[in-house]
Amino acid sequence: MSSEETNRILNEIGQLLAEDKVYPLDGTLLYAQVEAGKVSIAIFKNRDNSIVYRWPDLDHLGDALFDLWYAEKPKNRWAEVEYLVRGDTFEVVYVYANEIDPDEEHFDRRDKIVARYFGDKPIVYPPLSEADSVPIYDL
Q1: Tens of pLDDT, residues 18-39
Q2: Is 97 within 8 Å of 79 (Cβ atoms)?
Q3: Per-domain residue ranges of the chain
Q4: Is the CA virtual torsion 115, 6, 58, 97 positive or negative?
């Protein structure tokens, strides 16, 4: 993938994250796992005394993350991406499958990554009633 295409997709992801008008964009962490046909997205907002979890827009963010992932050559595809917004800039870390402990639980790993960026503060999850807008699929 060209760096121009990568930058376009990364900027698109930033614009999608900026659509959350409840919390500022500064201090936003997008953590996602991507593989063929599957994406898992979590968004966290750094606050003074806590970290707030935000429901992701799976349709738009999922599409953008798939675009980013599929644009890589198969041998270069990452397994996870950490996208951090600070001020008016962002930084991106790609994590490859061989860098992930297969015995580590997903949520434990995710919590460690969030703590690495925002410190050891409690994560506040929204009430499940707010999940009404989150699609649920039967398997």
Answers
A1: 999 999 999 999 999 999 989 9
A2: yes
A3: 3-130
A4: negative
Report the chain's C-alpha Rg in angstroms: 15
Closest Cα partner for 83 from 66, 95, 67?
Answer: 95
Residue with tokens 């041998």, as numbered in its chain: 75
Q: At what angle do helices 3-17 and 58-70 cross, to 10 degrees?
A: 170
Token pair listed for 102: 């297969």
Specify the pTM: 0.89
Whether 77 and 69 have beta carbons less than 8 Å apart is answered as yes
Four-point Cα dihedral 131, 137, 63, 45, nearest 10: 20
Nearest to 120 by CA among 28, 45, 42, 51: 51
Q: How far apart are CA 10 and CA 103, in angstroms?
A: 30
Handedness of CA 59, 114, 50, 128 (dihedral sign): positive
CA distance 47 to 66: 29
> Tell me, which fold does domain 3-130 have in CATH?
3.30.500
